[in-house]
Amino acid sequence: MTGNEIRKQFLAFFESKGHKVLPSASLIPDDPQLLFTVAGMVPFKPIFWGKVEPVYTRVATCQKCLRTNDIENVGRTPRHHTFFEMLGNFSFGDYFKKEAILWAWEFVTKVLKLPEEKLWVTIYKDDDEAFMIWRDLVGVPEKKIIRMGKDTNFWGPAGPTGPCGPCSEIHYDTGAADERGEEESTPATDDKRFLEIWNLVFTEFYQDEEGKLHPLPKKNIDTGAGLERVTAVVQGVSSNFETDLFAPIMSRIEEISGVKYKQDPQKDISMRVIADHSRAVSFLIADGVFPSNEERGYVLRRILRRAVRHGVLLGLEKTFLYLVNDAVIEAMKDVYPELAERRQLILEVTKAEEERFFKTIVQGSELLKEIIAKSKDVISGEDLFRLYDTYGFPPDIVIDVAKEKGLKVDLEGFEKLMQAQRERAREARGEVAYAKKTVFEDLAKTIQTKFLGYEKFECQAKVVAMDPPVASEEQKAEVVFDQTVFYAEKGGQVSDTGVIVWQDGQAEVEYVYVPVEGVVSHVVTVKKGTLKPDLVCTLKIDVERRLDTMRNHTATHLLHAALRKVLGTHVRQFGSLVAPDRLRFDFTHYQALKEEELQQVENLVNEAIMNAIPVIVEEKPFKEAVAEGAIALFGEKYGEFVRVVKVPNFSEELCGGTHVSNTGNIGLFKIVSESAISAGVRRIEAVTGRKALEYLRSKEFVVKELTKILGCSEQEILQRVSQILEKQQELSKQLEQLKEKLLSMQVKALVGEKILNIELFHTVFQNVEPNTLRNLSDVAIGGKSNSIVALFSTDGEKVNCVIRVSSDLTSRVKAGELAKIVAATLGGGGGGRPDMAQAGGKDLSKIAEAVKALKEYLTKMQG
Predict the structure, then answer these.
(1) Strands 505-516 and 408-409
(2) What fold, for 437-541?
(3) Rounded-to-integer distance, Cα 699 and Cα 683, Å
């Protein structure tokens, strides 16, 4: 039975038992607490937690999953994976232990046809109910039902409190007896011989803060069977990598590398790593993850680069992983059509990241070899930091290599150096903490600042805390009020500015932020009077600045939606800045946008503006908002209730920022620039409203000035500039030719200097291109015999040198050797053919010394 048939049979079997078969959810979960979907139950967490009522009470899935907690074991063991498929059947308050156990056994023995004598069962030590079902209803011999402890056979809770319950596992006896003998081995004593193929979780309790268990009103079933592991057992192979699930991928690796599997144990490890990681990379990119240095993108980059590094160990010296990914797509596209739909995206992103990393490998590998050679037991934190800081060599790769060589890595020392670098960077940026966080944490226990700024631009508020306690004219202070209209910087939106007014006093608000949740701090400079606690003040924001910011924030939402419409749903926000004068939007995409794509995006946004669509703001439960399609940003903290900003039929996002009430208020949207900020991440900057008008007027001014300067109409500008550039290029070419003629005359007039029987011609030019310098050396050597020419050219802080040796001398004097002498003196490098060579360096003051060194060498070799 093939792996595809097992997957299909599993889903069909549980469909026959009344289960609704659902497609796999994305690897990117709708759960801000998780980076990836790590198990089949993750998409159903809200149901297990009782936060959402299930649409179906019985569900079966084959869920794509990703875990990296054991990444160092991938390739070294038969069964560790980053990406894997989890077969699962779920009951939400419907059937329970009896049905789950009976159906699991039926599928394993009747559908998969695994022999009963090869199967063992483990249960939680106190789960007598499961024991009786296995023994009395299934018929498993009592000696083959093993009671296990909480560490292996009890699931959850995920945190200190929550749903949890005992587990039952089905184990397969591979028959490989250990040193204790076949009779004494059990799943409790030999996890190499006995392979877990099915886990049944009986979620029946709720654990409270004191660790006590309480029966749940609705009991649930959560099962999991790894497809790769089950396939290996059914197909009778000792490794998941030898199943038909991996066969086409392993074949592609053999084809690309020229290495045969199962001929060299070390190369086998590398082939398994590449096979596993190629699946993870393909599925992550298909689900909208791009290589980066943060969060999900960092995990993808780590997996991808680890695969590339193992390709290098196989002897591969250029990009290859994207070709392996193509085999993954072909093998799995029928089950996961998103792979075929995003084939080009997967291959191009992979290849681009490979190209970047191959440069890193070339630069850092030699240094790594030196470090390993000198390291006795431990690679120091300083060496690891140098590799990372100078060459961008990933610490994960160094750790992998160290493990292979039996070395440890001083990660603590590395982290200290990294932290010191972060501190230096913060100081260089001039970042200053406005106050100690602990002070605000204490304040937050008694005070929560109420935000009124969604509805008002001005309000009355009382000073509840200050640092310093009192502030007079020209003094800075941090002030907390009981309520405020000032928007605090967060979510990419800059803070409001404005003024605070009280009887006989006024202060300017320069910056507003949230030091701890619930507390809003206003950084102010007092301009008149004295500001102190308990004063009742009038808070007024800069309305014009706020309105401009609101235009840009709503436009950012429209831009995000337009990009997803034009480029695809893989586009995800990667960061943003919403300011009064502009907006900046960073997003995941693998290549520069074409001009027509930028125009499409700009047109879509402006159409939404011209349609004057009302902007709807609602508060609703987080799960409800996400279920309706609202985009939640990973890394943001969302409470139980969230604020949803919706432009009907165009955009819907969770957002705490300030927005216009109607898209027509934005006025105009204009993209100013599009650029790359890192691998797989692009940036668009744009302006709206009055700033868009200012931008267009500045362009109009430039066009009008050009018409005056060029003496032509606007329509003729491009043609006229083209003509001028062509003429300039022609004149530059003529100038270079004339310059070369003059220089040729100069080198022809060179007078040689006799060094015994050899004549040395040398001179120094300024700002002569290397190609021209070579041409001049041809002229200088001419038809001369017993001659050597050394021409130097200085350019800024650099020196170039071309050396020519007449053909009758090359048997005795090599130009390449002379170039090395010159380079050593100038502080650079050099080499070349016997008749012509080049050298370079940075020490302009050493040219005379280089000529002297040549003379000494020529004298010595003739002596």
Answers:
(1) unpaired
(2) Elongation Factor Tu (Ef-tu); domain 3 (2.40.30)
(3) 22
Q: Which tokens go with 291? A: 């290589």
Dist. CA 12–CA 7, nearest whole Å: 9
| pLDDT of the residue at 763 | 92
C-alpha span between 51 and 382 (Å, rounded): 49
Task: Please count the other Cβ atoms lying within 10 Å of the Cβ belonging to residue 639.
Answer: 9
Confirm whether residue 310 is marked as ligand binding.
no
Q: Does domain 546-696 have CATH number 3.50.50.60?
A: no
For residue 244, give both structure tokens: 């038909």
Q: Note whether 150 and 128 are within 8 A (CB).
A: no
Of residues 370 and 763, which shows the higher confidence score?
763
Residues 517 and 499 sit within 8 Å (Cβ to Cβ):
no
Tell me the one-letter amino acid at 347: L
* Terminal-residue alpha carbon distance, the chain: 84
Q: How far apart are CA 639 and CA 637, in angstroms?
A: 7
Q: Answer whether residue 207 shows pLDDT above 90.
A: no
Question: For residue 859, what are the CA distances in angstroms to 682, 759, 809, 853?
Answer: 61, 11, 14, 10
Convert the pLDDT of each residue in 120-175 to its tens digit. 999 999 999 999 999 999 999 999 999 999 989 998 886 677 788 999 999 999 88
The CATH number of domain 750-862, selected from 3.10.310.40, 3.30.365.10, 3.30.70.260, 2.60.40.3200: 3.10.310.40
Q: How far apart are CA 642 and CA 626, in angstroms?
A: 10
- Find out whether 536 and 495 touch, Cβ atoms under 8 Å: no
| Residue 373, CA distances (Å) to 54, 179, 393, 408, 410 in order | 60, 39, 17, 13, 16
| pLDDT per position as a tens digit, 605-636 | 999 999 999 999 998 887 787 777 777 664 45
* 69-78, 276-285, 548-557: segment of lowest average pLDDT: 69-78
Q: How do residues 321-350 score in pLDDT, each as one tens digit?
A: 999 999 999 999 999 999 998 898 899 889
Instruction: Judge whether 81 is annotated as a binding position.
Output: no
Longest CA span, the chain:
110
DSSP tag of 160: S
The whole-angstrom separation of Cα 633 and Cα 586 is 13
The set of residues, in sequence order, having a beta carbon less than 8 Å from that of 614 and lying 6+ positions away, is 648, 661, 662
Task: For residue 857, give the amino acid letter.
Answer: Y
pLDDT at 430: 35
Whether the predicted model's global pTM rises above the 0.85 cut: no
Residue 727 has what pLDDT? 94
Q: Which residue has 């009592």 as its token pair?
A: 142
659 is in an annotated binding site: yes
Residue among 427, 425, 370, 419 nearest 393 (CA)? 370
Q: Where are the domains of the chain?
A: 3-177+184-238, 246-374, 376-431, 437-541, 546-696, 712-749, 750-862
Q: What is the rounded average pLDDT of the residues 746-759?
A: 88
- The tens digit of pLDDT for each residue in 525-559 reads 999 999 999 999 999 999 999 999 999 999 999 99
**What single-letter DSSP state applies at residue 173?**
E
What is the per-residue burial (b if ≥16 Cβ within 10 Å, else e) of 241-258?
A: bbbebbbebbebbeebbe
Q: Looking at residue 362, what is its pLDDT?
A: 65
Helix 247-257 vs helix 321-332: crossing angle, to nearest 10: 160
| 557 marked among binding-site residues | yes
Contact 777, 836 (CB under 8 A): yes
3-177+184-238 has CATH 3.30.200.20 classification: no
Report whether pLDDT(49) > 70: yes
Would you state the pLDDT for residue 381?
Answer: 84
Q: Is the dihedral of CA 413, 416, 420, 421 positive or negative?
A: positive
Residue recorded with tokens 């690679």: 379
For the chain, what is the radius of gyration of the CA atoms? 36
Q: What is the mean pLDDT of the chain?
A: 89
pLDDT digits (tens, 9 = 90+) for 365-376: 777 778 888 887
* 492 residue type, one letter: G
